[in-house]
Amino acid sequence: MGTIAVAVEEFAAVAPEVVFDRFGRDGGGWLFGASCDRVALGEPITLRAPIGDGPPVDVLGRISDLRRPDSITITHDQPWRGRIRLRFTVAPGGTRIRLDAHIDAQGLEWLMRRRGHPVRDRAATGPRIGALTSRSGSGSVFASAVANAAVLAVDEIDVAGGIGGRPVELLHADDATDPGTGALEALRLARAGCRTIFLTTTSATYQAVSSALTGHDVLVVHTNMNEGGGESRLRIRLGERPWTQIALAAGPVMRSSGGRRWFLAGNDYVWPRTVNRIAREVLPGNGAVLVGEGYAPLGARDFGPLIERIAASGADIVLDTFVGADAAAFERQCHAMGLRERTVSLGPAMDEATLERIGFEASEGIHGVSGYFQHLQTERNGTLLQRYRERFGRWAPPLSSLSESMFEAIHVWAAAARQVRTTDPTPVADEMRHGRFEVPRGTIALDGRHHVEQPLHLAAARGATFGSMSDSDCTVRTGAARTPPGRRR
Amino acid sequence: MSTDPDASDAFGAGDRDAGLAFDALADPVRRRILAVLSESDECSAGELADRITTVGRTAVSTHLRVLRIAGLVSERRSGRFRYYAIEPGGAAADVIALLRNLFQSSLGEARSAAESAAGHREPARREAAG
After folding, report:
1. More confident: A348 or B129
2. Chain centroid to CA A298: how far?
3. Rounded percentage of chain A residues whose pLDDT exceeds 70
4. Which residues, at least 6 apart from A176, have a Cβ–Cβ distance to it below 8 Å?
């Protein structure tokens, strides 16, 4: 109920086992070139669906049921939440293949917009906020759990009475990892009555949105890691900053790799460029040697020449500022080309959702540095993980610093709105900017001058997820000294 | 509520139907009706009411009227019977057809891949059980 089912059938003149066993092999034609490292229960899987013009859209999910040779079920979260079930039954002379796909209202809306149908948003019934993130394009990998995290935060706020006794309404939008699309979608959210828009996107999209909403009375909150800059009364940028990330991680990563030669590699836009400029300033002071720097545009999938340059440079450590699907493709190719035997990598935007797409074998030697990892042992994180799994099930993508940042930003907004008894952007923003908040990543504090203080942690890949490194020198508080929490949400 | 000067004219009259379409899709019973219709070419009002058991016949008729006004469903009368189908030119028909075509062609590719994998081996001769 609540979803539309699409069913199609086909006949193949071979036994069910043959059909079943071809699935996921060699990317060979089976269901949009379905690719996964193993056809096994729980395995992440990517389907590349040719929806509309432009490059195919990645359907990101995992194998949620597997019965050889009878059926394969894929549960996916991008670009919408849904389920695709394949059934193979013996028929005279071969196999009847039946595919059932379920699409919900959000998925229908996404498809209608992607197909160019004008879709009007419903009349508002309560305070309305927008969540702009990447449901498609390279960012759909790092953002795979972001929409879920936003839904969970709003659910919790509404269960606790909403804001001013009215439930908060959440509108979703997809920037398609493209700044221009992001700006248009942000304008749509603003026209639909969203007074605050939360962005878990690239900094390139943030900049385009911030500029497109100039003159609109809308608060824009960039939730995830970013280079900072452009803040104002209605522009708040939370998230990890590159200077503290690199300063924390440089020493331990060099000790763990046994080397000090760094190569800076990333996507060609403002955040990677800024991270690398900061790395050029910070790293030499830590005894590091810079041996090269290289970029590829967002959406790149072949990094061969760049990886050859890295290999030739004799680098011990790659500072990886690729994002999402690009980071996954880059790291997989590094592994395939044998680079991993000589180098480790540190990714300031590397998260659990991306690591899972890099896979078990290719993940070894990858480090992340963030304010949040799923394995954090805070009480609020325990509650968050439990509620997330209860709400979205065991097959939903992992939480990470990016999705948690959306969750906490919405809660911080709600705490501020309750405090000032309004959802008007300016008083809410002023309240948020001076607050200290208890969230799953710990205590975050804003000092009124666009500076966010939060604990940072270094982690290393353990299989296809992150685990903590020895904690003694790898967790610090950034910014001012710790003071007791002032306000709790 | 919005202070945005564009708000009043953001959606011109030409967009009205698509707006109605999404309003129409917001209801679970209406989505269920569309799901049933998407599985067949045409359905009589009686058949639809038989298959939608969560609400009564009168409610099904009301939902059908909303879907028809939104341009998602078409109605054909024959004697005292009414038949319903997904409106061929509507947004819902477009995205459902898109999905159906996508999946159908992917299964076609799957068949080719499986049959060529079997190569020159004897085609399967198993009979359906029962």
Report:
1. A348
2. 15
3. 94
4. A134, A135, A136, A137, A182
Contacting residues of A for B107, CB less than 8 Å apart: 8-10, 31, 97, 99
Name the strand (E) or helix (H) holding A18.
Answer: helix A16-22
B109: pLDDT confidence band, cut at 50, 70 and 90?
Answer: confident
Note the ipTM here. Answer: 0.82
The CA distance from B112 to the nearest CA of chain A, in Å, is: 8
Nearest residue on chain B to A2, judged by CA atoms?
Answer: B28
Per DSSP (E only), the strands in A254-338 are 261-267, 289-296, 317-321
Tokens describing residue A242:
């590159």
Please indicate whether, in this complex, the C-beta atoms of A108 and B92 are within 8 angstroms of each other.
yes
Interface contact flag, B23 A109, Cβ < 8 Å: no
Q: Which residue of chain A comes nearest to B119, CA vs CA?
A: A14
Cβ-based burial of A32 (10 A; exposed 0-12, middle 13-18, buried ≥19) = buried
Q: Distance from CA of residue B78 to its chain's centroid?
A: 22
How do residues B20-53 score in pLDDT, each as one tens digit?
666 677 777 888 888 788 777 788 988 888 888 8
Q: Which of residues 50-69 of A touch B (CB under 8 A)?
A: 50-51
Q: Do B2 and A117 touch (CB under 8 A)?
A: no
B40 touches chain A (CB under 8 A): no
Smallest Cα distance from A259 to chain B, Å: 47
Q: Quick one: which of A73, A69, A72 has its CA closest to A90?
A: A69
- What mean pLDDT, rounded, does chain A reach? 91
d(CA A461, CA A446): 30
Give the C-alpha separation, A189 to A127, whole Å. Answer: 13
**Which of A12, A108, A121 is opposite residue B111, by nearest beta carbon?**
A12
Residues of A in contact with B31 (CB under 8 A): 2-4, 105
Chain A CB contacts of B26 below 8 Å: 105, 122
Segment holding A356, helix H or strand E: helix A352-358
A118-144 pLDDT, tens per residue?
Answer: 776 767 788 999 999 999 999 999 999
What's the pLDDT band for B96 if we cut at 50, 70, 90?
confident
Question: Which band of pLDDT confidence, cut at 50, 70 and 90, is reported for residue A222?
Answer: very high
Within chain A, what is the greatest distance between any pair of CA atoms?
74
Output the pLDDT for position A472. 39
Alpha-helical segments (H) within A177-260: 179-191, 203-212, 242-257
Largest CA-CA distance found in chain B, in angstroms, rounded: 71
